[in-house]
Amino acid sequence: EVHLVESGGGLVQPGGSLRLSCAASGFTFSSYTMAWVRQAAGKGLEWVSTIDHSGGTGYADSVKGRFTISRDNAKNTLYLQMTSLKPEDTAVYYCQKGITRGQGTQVTVSS
Known about the structure:
This protein is mainly β. It has strands at 3-7, 10-12, 18-25, 34-39, 45-51, 57-59, 67-72, 77-82, 91-97, 100-101, 105-109. The strands form 2 sheets. Strands 2, 4, 5, 6, 9, 10 and 11 form a 7-stranded mixed beta sheet that branches. Strands 1-3-8-7 form a 4-stranded antiparallel beta sheet, with no helix packed on it. Strand 7 and strand 8 form a beta hairpin. It is globular and about 40 Å long.
C-alpha cells in the first residue's frame, strides 16, 4: 500500500524559506515520478513541481526559480525547498504518486 507522509510546513514571513519533506513507503520509490501539488483555501489543486525517476524536473511558472524539488532514493524521501515565499504560496502542500496523495502539510506565508 502506498503511504506518503508530508512534513515541514509552518508559518513563515514573506521572503522566507521552508523545506518540505515527504516520506514514502509501500512501493519502489526510486522507480517512480513524484510530484508536489498544493491547494489554497477555497481553490482547486494546483500542480507545483515534478521529478522523474532519473532526476528530471519540471516547475509551474508561479514557482520557477524559487522552488527546488529533489529526491533521496536511499531514504525514500521527496523534498521541496521553497525560497522567496509569497503570501500567494499559502496552501496545503501534498506529495503525490500517480493519483495518491499524502495528508498534506500547511504552509502559511504571512507577516
